[in-house]
Amino acid sequence: MLELDAETIYRHLAQRARETFVGETLKLVGVHTGGVWLAERLKRDLKIADPVGILDVSFYRDDFDQSGLKPAVRPSQIAFDVAGSHILLVDDVLNTGRTVRAAMNEIFDYGRPARVDLAVLIDRGGRELPIAASIVGATIELPADVAVVLVRDDDAQLHLTMEKRGD
Amino acid sequence: MLELDAETIYRHLAQRARETFVGETLKLVGVHTGGVWLAERLKRDLKIADPVGILDVSFYRDDFDQSGLKPAVRPSQIAFDVAGSHILLVDDVLNTGRTVRAAMNEIFDYGRPARVDLAVLIDRGGRELPIAASIVGATIELPADVAVVLVRDDDAQLHLTMEKRGD
Which of A62, A114, A132 sits opposite B131 (nearest CB)? Predict the structure, then answer.
């Protein structure tokens, strides 16, 4: 059984962010929910001033109408000025790239950023769009029917679990 | 002086396409103008049945209003069914990634593809969005104020030229 230690992988990701963006003024945007947890940790560990922007891309994903998601209203919120900024978009798992495309479009609805980098805890491959992360915590290969899910316990510790996808 | 032989680089790109997408039914979309020339060559060399789709992303680029482009009407045209298809998006030079983001959005306006791969003749770095090509003819580094331009002569041979970017 593959053990993925989320806290160890996160520390690697944070270190990569420190090295890659040294001297840069980053603004963080997390994809609901796991990406927001990670962005909040990066805000603290990289001492980033601006509040974390939150994106909920459920409505923007191109398969929204196929996914059977409840249209619960969890509006996105970015409290800083996106125009001209260097954004680090944060998500837990990178797979097809469709969430990232949706997230980019949502960011551009707020303004034209100077640059958007992508940080993901796990890159599990399976890309369906020409999307790539700038920094990655860990790259793994998994059967297509296995989902990796980031969870956060009552002590704010992160854990990765695997579950069978679908029905 | 760096010599970039466009025909040699193209042959490398075509070989990469053959190896990477063996057994796949690809549909080609070229970005006006250089990407369309390259896509037409790939159509012939990879024996792809469907006509090449043509994208003109001038109107979609996020800096359209800053670029001073004339709003000449060169409408995009994709004559095959995008929904469910495996698209190879072709462009001559990959730089910031903004053209690719615009091209993806335009493709999705036609339907939801199963997959979009990106083929570029030249990856010159300088990414401002988390975009990556699936296959690349050549990767080069250039000063930011130097543009690489693909041209096609009267004998349909491809050439790469470098020019100072406009002020």
Answer: A132
Q: Tell me the pLDDT band of B57, cut-offs 50, 70 and 90.
A: confident
Least confident range of A7-11, A54-58, A64-68, B141-145: A64-68
Is the Cβ of B20 closer than 8 Å to some Cβ of chain A?
Answer: no
Selected for mutation to probe chain A from B118, B131, B134 (highest A CB count within 10 Å) is B131
Q: Hey, what CATH topology would domain B6-63+72-164 get?
A: Rossmann fold (3.40.50)
Which residues in chain A touch residue B108, judged by CB atoms under 8 angstroms apart?
Answer: 62
- List, in order, residues 6 or more apart from B64 with CB less than 8 Å away: B58
| CB proximity B87 to A under 8 Å | no
| Closest-CA residue of chain A to B65 | A112
Under 8 Å between Cβ of B91 and B120: yes
Q: State the Cα torsion B88-B90-B94-B96 to the nearest 10°.
A: -70
| pLDDT recorded at residue B76 | 81
Structure confidence by residue, pLDDT tens digits, B32-48: 999 999 999 999 999 99
B79: contact with A, CB 8 A cutoff: no
Cis amide bond preceding B99, omega within 30: no
Q: Kindly tell me if the per-residue pLDDT of A32 is higher than 80.
A: yes
Residue B91: CB atoms within 10 A of its CB come to 27
Predicted-complex ipTM score: 0.91
Per-domain boundaries in chain A? 6-65+72-164
Contact at CB, B130 and A117, closer than 8 angstroms: yes
The domain made up of A6-65+72-164 has a fold known as Rossmann fold (3.40.50)
